[in-house]
Amino acid sequence: QSLAEAESDASMRGSRTIxxxxxxxxxxxxxxxxxxxxxxxxxxxxxxxxxxEAARQADDGGHTSSKSxxxxxxxxxxxxxxxxxxxxxxxxxxxxxxxxxxGLLMVSGFGIxxxxxxxxxxxxxxxxxxLLFRELVKVRYNTFxxxxxxxxxxxxxxxxxxxxxxxxxxxxxxVVEVIKSNTALHHLLIYAQLQTPLAFCxxxxxxxxTIATLQAGHIKFQLNQLCWTIVVLCLTVGQLKYVMxxxxxxxxxxxxxxxxxxxxxxxxxICGMLCGRKFIHRPFIALxxxxxxxxxIGGGIFTVIIGWYFARIMAQFTWLTCPTNQFSxxxxxxxxxxxxxxxxxxxxxxxxxxxxxPTALVKLLPGVVDICxxxxxxxxxxxxxxxxxxxxxHHFELVIKNVYPVQIHALSLSMFASLVxxxxxxxxxxxxxxxxxxxxxxxxxxxxxxxxxxxxxxxMALCTWVHYPEHISPFLLYQLLTLSDxxxxxxxxxxxxMALCTWVHYxxxxxxxxxxxxxMIYMYNLMKESEQQEFLERIMEISA
Length: 544
Fold this sequence. Notes:
This protein is mainly α. The chain has helices at residues 3-12, 20-31, 35-59, 66-116, 118-143, 145-151, 155-181, 189-192, 195-212, 219-238, 243-248, 252-275, 293-314, 318-321, 352-355, 359-364, 405-419, 422-435, 450-454, 457-471, 476-481, 488-492, 495-513, 517-525, 529-543; strands spanning 345-349, 368-374, 377-383, 391-403.
């Protein structure tokens, strides 16, 4: 390689620019060796080797046979290979131990954070987002440092300004929602109305500053950097926009998805390490060659099983299941009327599920009952009796008793954590491969940076927020009051109007009915002077 090619190759791998003077000195030092000097050095090496062999023969009394020499020559590579294998095995064991200890410390820290309270959890989430943004933008910053350092002013400043704009808009919007839903905080509505104009002013100022710092000779590069900054904001702030909603809807919806991703990551690693490429030799994904089909499948199976029991255990703690809209700096005991999904119940599996499964396999499932029609009358159903001529198969039925309904939701979240969330990790692997880095940072021993551990959590948090309002809160009352069988349309025919009715009812009655004196004063101050006079006259008429 020429010096320019070497510098280019080193910069694309995330390393610092190679000093040209040092390269030239090294190159000239290498070229100073002529062919003759190299031959002399080779002869000297051969002479030393011959002298050592002669000394060994003298020690053996000069009886060293060609067979023994051959055995020594063949045993040396074997000993070297054995040492390398032992060193590799020790390094692997040490790596697993370090990862395990770091993982246990992180889980313990997560438990402490979970108990500290909602406000502190939100503060830690914001801090984690800041560190994630730093790690991702640093990838390209380190790669192109030699371009950015002296030619592009305020490069890092504009990047962090965009981050501040995104954070302010995201979380101020959440705070305003909480203030509107809590009558005790309605005295803050006068400040809440400033959220939108402040966010717009921050956006406008950052936009103007970004355009003002564009350099004529580097516009294309700066636009690429701006696009990368926006992509990073979408990955971090964008996908985690609703994680605060998950926290205040109940810590259950914040903790369970995180534990599902961690479970999948741990068991995929264990299954891949123990069984990788022993059953399926085909590569899993080119972006991450170390990932195997055995690890992907094994991680998914264990995640579904563990998620089922995780949900049952967590459903028994009101600290995790109760929602709140309070900003309390000190943890308080939460008490609420628990959502019915956190109570034990009996769930009937839709019989149509068994129609897509072979009959022989369905009969092997524990708890499945074969329901028959008597004399072909579908209105008279009874459990089938073997040998009864009047009984004809109608459908299979499975009743799951003493199960928390939230465990069913945990199964769907577990499937997402196993099948979709890992592709966030593959995206992180692609970024590291593109820029020639092993880890995004080194703040977590054995794991790397926060991005190396949080790469799958983004999609999981977003999925949980989508799952909660779509499958739990709007249709819960209807699902409790409706009991019917039939096709999917038979179960969903009333859901469409129910969803629309819920939205209309909420916006018409719930929002409007949430009133307080501070809120009325706030609304009064928004009126024109003539409207205020009319309002006071109406109040006087009512009071009279």
